[in-house]
């Protein structure tokens, strides 16, 4: 269930970053602020390691960086809109303005893949992406995301 992974504190509206590396630093810092078990430097390194395996853009200005870390017991999602789109190195050459970070315990690889798959289907829905881009604050972003069931997001 989406509400188990995401709450209003995990919605970041209008983050201002310069580039992909800066985005990953901000996401790592915010994650540490939300969960004191997370070390931002370790999370940042894990996100970078994953990104080196392949770009995590899913097209249409949306990216889904992710990481598996030992320090946490439960998966979580951090959803972010960027105040200015950034070059993410996306295959479709579109600048990224919607970012969904998925972080899971190392011991939960199958659940991690399930979350990534379902959020990817949700965010690839052009209607949902348009609604998210039309939001004016974190609360409206959260409401749009909660309106959709992850398992039926296709």
What does this protein structure show overall?
With 154 residues, the protein is an alpha/beta fold. The protein has a single domain, classed as Mannitol-specific EII, Chain A (3-Layer(aba) Sandwich). Helix content is 43%, strand content 23%. It is built from six helices and six strands; from the N terminus they run αβααβββββααα. The protein has helices at 2-5, 20-34, 40-53, 109-124, 126-133, 138-146; strands at 11-15, 57-59, 62-63, 66-69, 76-86, 96-105. Strands 1, 2, 3, 4, 5 and 6 form a six-stranded mixed β-sheet that branches. Strand 2 (57-59) and strand 3 form a beta hairpin. It starts with a helix and ends in an 8-residue tail after the last helix.
Overall shape: it is globular
CATH architectural category: 3-Layer(aba) Sandwich
Low-confidence stretches: none
CATH superfamily: Mannitol-specific EII, Chain A
Q: What number of structural domains do the residues give? A: 1
Oligomer: single chain
Classify the fold: give the CATH topology: Mannitol-specific EII, Chain A
The level of helicity is 40-55%
Q: Helix tally?
A: 6
Q: Which class best fits the helix and strand makeup?
A: alpha/beta
Strand content of the residues, in percent? 15-25%
Average of pLDDT: 91
CATH class label: Alpha Beta
Give the beta-strand count.
Answer: 6
SSE ordering: HEHHEEEEEHHH
Cα end-to-end separation: 15 Å
Main sheet: strands, sense, barrel? 6 strands, mixed
Radius of gyration: 14 Å
């Amino acid at each position: 269930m989406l509400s188990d992974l995401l709450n209003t504190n995990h919605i970041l509206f209008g983050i201002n970053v310069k580039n992909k590396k800066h985005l990953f630093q901000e996401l790592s810092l915010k994650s540490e602020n939300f969960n004191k078990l997370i070390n931002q430097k370790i999370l940042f390194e894990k996100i970078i390691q994953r990104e080196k395996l392949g770009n995590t853009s899913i097209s249409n200005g949306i990216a889904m960086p992710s990481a598996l870390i030992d320090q946490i017991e439960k998966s979580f999602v951090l959803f972010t809109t960027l105040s200015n789109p950034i070059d993410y190195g996306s295959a479709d050459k579109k600048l990224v303005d919607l970012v969904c970070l998925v972080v899971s315990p190392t011991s939960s690889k199958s659940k991690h893949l399930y979350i990534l798959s379902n959020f990817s289907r949700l965010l690839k829905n052009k209607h949902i992406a348009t609604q998210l881009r039309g939001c004016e604050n974190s609360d409206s972003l959260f409401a749009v995301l909660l309106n959709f069931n992850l398992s039926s997001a296709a």
